[in-house]
Specification:
alpha/beta, six-stranded parallel β-sheet, 9% strand, globular
C-alpha cells in the first residue's frame, strides 16, 4: 500500500497503526514524506508488535531521535518486519544506538535503511558490534551520514573480514553536493546589415 506524500501527519499515522493491528493481509506500507513525528512513530511502533507487516517505509518524515527510540522498542518485538526504511529523518546517535540494540534480540529484520541522517562514529561502531551478533540482517544503508567519519567507517568495513552473520552489503555512499550548472555564454547579437548603397548620381544628357 503506497500512501507516500499525502501529508498524513501524526493523527493519520495513529489511525493507520490501528488498522495495522487488525489487518493480517497487508504486508507492505509506504509512508514516505508524510510529516510523521514522534507521536506517530510511537503508535506505529506499538502496531509492529502485533501487525503482519513485512516492509515499512518511513523515509523523509520528521521522526527525529525520539521517533527512532520509539520504533526501536517496537522493532525489538516485531515478529514479521523484514525491511525498515528510516532515511532522511534527522536521527542522531542516540536513536541509532537504540536501533542497534534491537538487532540482538531481533531475528527477522533483513534490511535497515538509515541513509541521510546524523549518525556518528560511536553509533556506527555500536551497529557494527550488534551486526556481528545478528543472524538475519543482510543489508544496511548508512550513506550520506555527514557525522560519520573515518573511525566509524573503519568499524563498519571491519565487518567484511569477519563471518558468522548474514550481512552482504553495507552502503556508505556519500552524495556530492549539488552544484549550479555552468552559465551558458550569451550569444553575440547579430551584426546589423550594412547600409544600402546609394544609387550613383545621374548625369543629364547633353542637349543637341
Amino acid at each position: 500500500l503506497d500512501l507516500s506524500h499525502n501529508v498524513i501527519g501524526d493523527t493519520g499515522a495513529m489511525h493507520i497503526a490501528d488498522v495495522l493491528t487488525a489487518n493480517v493481509s497487508l504486508h507492505s506500507l509506504d509512508l514516505t514524506g508524510n510529516q510523521i513525528g514522534e507521536s506517530g512513530a510511537v503508535a506505529l511502533a506499538r502496531a509492529l508488535t502485533r501487525a503482519a507487516i513485512r516492509r515499512l517505509e518511513l523515509a523523509a518524515n520528521r521522526l527525529g531521535t525520539a521517533g527512532a527510540l520509539a520504533l526501536a522498542q517496537g522493532l525489538s518485538a516485531a515478529a514479521t518486519l523484514r525491511y525498515l526504511g528510516l532515511a532522511s529523518n534527522g536521527i542522531a546517535a542516540a536513536g541509532a544506538l537504540a536501533l542497534a540494540e534491537t538487532l540482538v534480540p531481533n531475528h527477522v529484520l533483513q534490511e535497515l535503511n538509515l541513509h541521510s541522517n546524523a549518525i556518528d562514529n560511536e553509533a556506527a561502531a555500536a551497529l557494527a558490534e550488534r551486526i556481528l551478533r545478528n543472524k538475519t540482517l543482510c543489508r544496511v544503508d548508512l550513506g550520506d551520514n555527514r557525522e560519520l567519519a573515518l573511525p566509524g567507517i573503519r568499524s563498519l568495513t571491519a565487518l567484511c573480514k569477519g563471518g558468522g552473520f548474514q550481512l552482504s552489503k553495507i552502503s556508505l555512499e556519500r552524495r556530492a553536493p549539488a552544484t549550479a550548472p555552468a552559465a551558458t555564454p550569451l550569444a553575440a547579437p547579430p551584426a546589423a546589415p550594412p547600409p544600402a548603397a546609394s544609387p550613383p548620381p545621374t548625369t543629364p544628357a547633353p542637349s543637341t
